[in-house]
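Crash report, auto-generated. Payload:
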Amino acid sequence: MIALARPAALLLLLSLFTFLIAEWAPGDYLSGFGFGSAWSDDQLREWRERSGEDRPWVVRYAGWLWSAARGDFGQSLAYGIPVRQLLADRLPATLVLSGVAWCLSWVAGLLLGCAAALSGLRWIERAIGMFNAVLLSIPELVLGLLAMAWAAQQGWLSSGGVALPAAVLALNGTPAIAVHTHAALRRASADESVLVTRILGVPEPVVFLRYRLPLAAPHLLPLAAWSAGTALSSSLIVETLFGWPGLGALTLASIQARDTAVVAAVVLLSGIILLGADAAAGAVHRRLDSRLRFESASEAPA
Amino acid sequence: MSRIAPLVLLLLPFLLAPWLSPYGPSEQLRGFSSQPPGCTPGGPCFPLGTDALGRDVLSRFLHGGLWSILAALLATTVAVVLGAAMGLTAATSRRAGFVLGGVTQIFLSLPWIYLLLALRAVLPLRAPAEWCLVFVACVIGVAGAAAPAQVIRPAALAAWRADHTLAARGFGATLPHLLIRHLLPAVTPVVESQFLTHFPRFIAAETALTFLGLGLPEPAPSWGSLLGSARESIVWGTGWWLLAPAVALTLLTFAAARAASARALCFIALIVLPAHAQPAQQGRYGGRLTVAQRSEPRTLNPLVAMDASTRDVLRMLHGRLGRIDGRTHKAQPELARSWKFSPDMRSAVVELRRDVRFSDGEPFDADDVLFTFEAYLDARTGSPQRDLLQPGGRPVQVTRLDAYRVRFDFAQPYAPGERMFDGIAILPSHLLAAHLKAGTLAQAWPVGTPPERIAGLGPFVLQQVLPGQRLLLRRNPHYHRFGADGRRLPYLDEVAIVFVSDQNAEALRFRSGETDLLVRPNAGAWTALNASPQARDLKFTDAGASLEYQFLAFNMNPVAAGAAAGQHHRRQWFQTDAFRQAVSLVADRSAIVRLAYQGLATPIYHHVTPGNREWHAPVPGAGRSLDRARKLLQQAGFRLQGGQLTDGAGRAVEFSLVHNGANAQHQRIAAILQEDLKQLGIRVQVVPLEFRSLIERIMKTHDYDAALLSLGAGDTDPGAEMNIWTLDGSMHLWNLAAESDSTRWEAEIDRLMRAQLVEPRPAVRKQLYHRVQRLVAEHLPLVCLASPNLLVIARRNLMNLSPSILAPFALWNVEEIYWSAAGGSR
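Recovered output after restart:
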């Protein structure tokens, strides 16, 4: 029971924060349209009344919560259709993009990290360090535009599909993974078990696969969970830039338009994904580290 | 010491920026804009080139470096220290881990952009740029602490369970000792790598803020905003030297991790230098026009369409009784065969076309017209057009005379007359009558509606909607109009609308051949495409000054009770005619046109631009004059002492200028005005705001000094400007409480505007409106600056295209557009 109560409480808090922030941010959905159009004050007032936007935020939050509890996330102000339908339309695109980007960044990051830790050649380590520094220093917005400009010149912009945005997202995530893998592997090579096996004359590839990698893995798991769990919020700008029809672009547009019901639903979804990724990482960690298994058997699970 | 030395060495050039940089960070050499690195012939040298306003990139880069590095260091320190504290605490205590784990998960799930949007509003408007940077750094740092915490915690947990820690605990070691001697050393590599990855990320994060309109104020030269403002140059490959901050940041990051390497430059060159390959060969495919739009339609129901993107799409699906011709700016019959207004403009009889069918084959007659107007006027629908149909506060009466004749009666003479018809889409009563009866018209036809349930009288019908991606229209076989060659319109088989939310991305899609039309590109895109080898296959149309006017508005609202003391005297300056006139006299409109719009704009002195041929009144004697401005200020009691203007009471004249941070042109105009007003001894603080936050300040809280804004009249007719110029108008934005507290000239403008709206004689109406324009040019409630030209770029073989300054600019006659024999797109 407790195992379920905690995530539920977290998600509740998360939605509360979303509404609080929306209340805090200046302007509402209509304030953007009132400017420059022929809307009269009466019309604005009338619209706010009809849409329920004139109610205090607590009331709006309670209403949203009530409908969310029944699996419905209210109506989008901008689209006038149920939020659930909006999300259902866009979730697949985002899952494809983030899934591909996540896999790419982990393959590249792990390879680079291992190469830097294993090669023993100074210049390879340096080159990889430089590569990381370059990627970390170029904002994803600039990287995205560079990629688009390049693809446009090659004539690939329209036929690229998921490749281009996924590559930009992946390049964005790769350096952190590479740096961490490198650090974790270096740390692992100083471990007693590695020293002992080396002294015993076990071949280096075996040492790497059987000892260094398993020792480093627990340090990488949280990063993996974190990068998978924040897939939604990290793809906001790239999706917008590439016109990818996913949740990221919708979220950014909804934040800017103050379409709170949509933002709250996306944040909730993002929270669920994060909790799920965390739980998965925890499970893998328990499998890798037998000490944890014994511990959780003897103590009550948190 | 030896650890700090390299860092100090790296920071040294930035610490010495005031002495090392050849120019001031905000000094504008307006004759040398966008210069590549090197020396100009016989002129000054710019080692890293200049930006669009003629500011030396090296100087800005050096000056900005210190603040960016310090802010990022601060943010990283906050994030990593906080994250480490959270991670370590969570490892040592189950309960703390339970709580802190939740906190991190909440922070990780909330997009930090969302958090910043709300927190930014807390910051006072007049906070200096440097403090904004520190504030943003702290917010990013706190919000970013979740990631390090998440990563550090398991490492700390492993150390907590390690044998040596266990032994120490057994010997009774205190918690601080355990933390410092046993846990901290174990997590150090993780903390270090977190620091290394977060430091450059945080400088880069600032770039995203410029994209969202949350960027730093001009003229602050922070690296993130330098990179953000280089966006356009990246797209066109015209200003690679503007990427200097990214190069420096790379070096800095690398140097911080290891010793700097010469290989650095090779890597940068590989990534930054655009490959100069031949553009792709254009594919050809009959009869489809692909256009990009800045956002997708939010609904398929014209009754409740609120934004321009939605309306532009729906215009192609629905017909109107009459529409405004983009060439002549006059209304012409469409579904009406003809109309006749009474001489007093109080009533009209409209004769409808016969044999017109909706796209589903159902016939159209007077009942549909009656139904449509009833639907628009129904309070339960809540249509934005409802006010338009209530001139004088009373709804227009629509009477059916017979199946093809309808009579309209207005409560008062309605001078714009038939122009009204342009905004009203005629709807099929056979599909929507039940909704009207039930009062659910506002919910009818949302975006997911199956195409076969929608019918219209426009040239196209809906074929397919891919949410967030694309909309496909195909020709309406029942469309009622015929072309000059006697064949049924439209010529195009299909129109595809793709959604691109960023202007640069839109331009790139056009350049790559994915779209066929680039409507209202920015000046950078226009110039770059004009110079590219592609230009041969493109048709460039500069339709001259658009209806949009950029202006500076001073806050002349009465001061609210309990406002800060500074508010009172600032409002007094703003309410002084001479002050605004002096500002208008020093505003360098030609520099704005040249630098912010690369010459593709027109300087203006009041709100009716020269593009509005029918109504524009020329203003004699307008021009820039520093002397006259100084004299005016002196006469009004201001004094110029030591380069600082003071008012009669000896207070220094300075104010803040808010603008939409996402608008690159406005950012440049603000920087130009800032420099210009310096010549009068006025210090201006530029504050970029996110759009809705900006509007909230101007329309609701009135908490601002001056604002840089733009408005674009929806129509050439003065009737469209009523809500701006009448005293009770909802857009009377410089003084929203004007009813009770107005000046003589404001009251006069109000009187003239009301008179012209009910004046049936066109010539008299014109005179009245010309007087309004002269009053605006003299008293300057809005200091109008420039009107960007209406630009359209299209494929050369796209025929019958006739770009207009009236929305929707290029596709107003979409049914007449066709691909020449050379073939269609793709």
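Post-recovery validation: Chain B touches chain A through 130 residues (CB under 8 Å).
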